[in-house]
């Protein structure tokens, strides 16, 4: 964990930071969890290609850290993305268990997500694989890969094959995708494949979200933008509500610091302490020539019970968006915080833009996650 020294000077500050700490502990992401994903399917169905597609990795964009790949044998590979996150690629579960028996106990941890990859015409020999997957994994997905093999045939042929698999495996959702061929073509099948790959990613993300594990995976996906937007938009919704609570400044600071911890982890994989996050926030005080962080933050944020509900929420959101988008743009360009001079140049323009953007917001829009994600699109690089 990254720590830093933060000078706390007076009583006022001590009680403020205690209040922040209590809130922070409740909302900060728990990074001690593990994440195991298994991708099962016959040789050549496109398991490795699917893993790359899920991590948005390709030749131009291989990802910052590739992770270590342990090849137990040609039929079983374990991609250790970091010490808590593993993707297991295997022909099947029987083989997976035999092979795995000589590995460390660590590998027997429960599997969060199991993905069965199939190709071609429906085949009931997969039923057993699917049952094994259901036994070992909390959530399962079935992917019909290489649908470009039906290119040039009747457009309904993909749907027919999908329906056959549906009946054979008795599974509700099957994702028809292609993990390699559709880079440049724009046929209707192409659209179908892209749409379903997108859906698959979304559905996997929903499962991870429910388990509080989204960031464990997101950290390894080569494009961070959508996750950064999510972290920031959720923080904005929280501060809009907190703006009306007593002790609101401690709540809002806790939300901002928890979002900073998430952004930091997303880009660097490092878990920063609350003090470290507050040190980053203090840099914003320096930009505005404030020496005292608590006074600074109080001057920016609405006081509780402020006349107008909309305007307190909007004030809290504006400052939070300016801070988080500044931090996001610095982290995205690979610089370290706190104490970075570039923060000064970025913060003011972001604040001005945030003020202009939120000026016209209506009260009902303050809690609309989808709307906010669209609104902050230009802020998140
Ligand atoms: N036509 C087609 N080929 C694919 C697709 N996805 C992967 N492949 C190819 O299928 C072969 C096997 O892919 P790979 O990911 O290594 O399969 P694995 O053995 O299951 O890991 C490779 O030559 C890939 O380029 C796809 O969507 N369509
Ligand atoms: Mg492979």
From TrEMBL:
Residues 36-146 form the G domain. One of its GO terms (molecular function) is GTP binding. InterPro entries: GTP-bd (IPR006073), P-loop_NTPase (IPR027417). This is GTPase domain-containing protein. It comes from Limnofasciculus baicalensis BBK-W-15. The lineage of its organism: Bacteria, Bacillati, Cyanobacteriota, Cyanophyceae, Coleofasciculales.
């Amino acid at each position: 964990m990254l720590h830093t020294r933060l000078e706390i000077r007076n009583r006022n500050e001590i009680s403020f930071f205690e209040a922040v700490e209590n809130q922070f502990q409740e909302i900060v992401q728990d990074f001690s969890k593990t994440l195991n994903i298994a991708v099962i399917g016959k040789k050549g169905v496109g398991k490795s290609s699917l893993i790359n597609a899920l991590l948005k990795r390709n030749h131009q964009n291989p990802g910052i850290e590739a992770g270590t790949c342990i090849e137990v044998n040609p039929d079983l590979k374990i991609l250790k993305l970091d010490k808590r996150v593993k993707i297991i690629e295997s022909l099947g579960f029987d083989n997976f268990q035999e092979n795995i028996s000589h590995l460390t106990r660590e590998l027997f941890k429960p599997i969060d997500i199991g993905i069965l990859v199939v190709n071609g015409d429906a085949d009931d020999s997969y039923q057993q694989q699917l049952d094994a997957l259901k036994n070992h994994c909390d959530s399962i997905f079935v992917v019909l890969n290489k649908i470009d093999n039906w290119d040039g045939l009747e457009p309904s042929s993909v749907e027919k094959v999908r329906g056959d698999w549906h009946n054979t495996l008795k599974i509700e959702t099957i994702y028809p995708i292609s993990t390699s061929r559709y880079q440049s073509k724009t046929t209707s099948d192409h659209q179908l494949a892209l749409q379903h790959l997108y859906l698959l990613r979304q559905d996997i993300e929903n499962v991870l979200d429910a388990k509080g594990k989204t960031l464990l995976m997101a950290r390894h996906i080569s494009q961070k933008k959508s996750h950064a937007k999510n972290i920031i938009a959720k923080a904005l919704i929280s501060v809009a509500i907190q703006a009306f609570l007593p002790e609101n400044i401690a709540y809002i600071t806790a939300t901002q610091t928890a979002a900073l911890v998430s952004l930091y982890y997303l880009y660097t994989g490092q878990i920063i302490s609350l003090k470290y996050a507050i040190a980053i926030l203090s840099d914003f005080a320096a930009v505005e020539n404030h020496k005292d962080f608590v006074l600074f933050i109080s001057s920016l944020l609405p006081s509780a019970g402020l006349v107008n509900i909309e305007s307190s929420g909007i004030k809290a959101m504006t400052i939070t968006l300016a801070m988080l988008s500044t931090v996001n743009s610095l982290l995205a360009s690979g610089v370290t915080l706190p104490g970075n001079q570039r923060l000064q140049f970025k913060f003011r323009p972001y604040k001005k833009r945030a003020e202009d953007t939120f000026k016209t917001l209506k009260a009902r829009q303050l809690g609309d996650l989808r709307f906010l994600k669209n609104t902050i699109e230009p802020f998140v690089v």
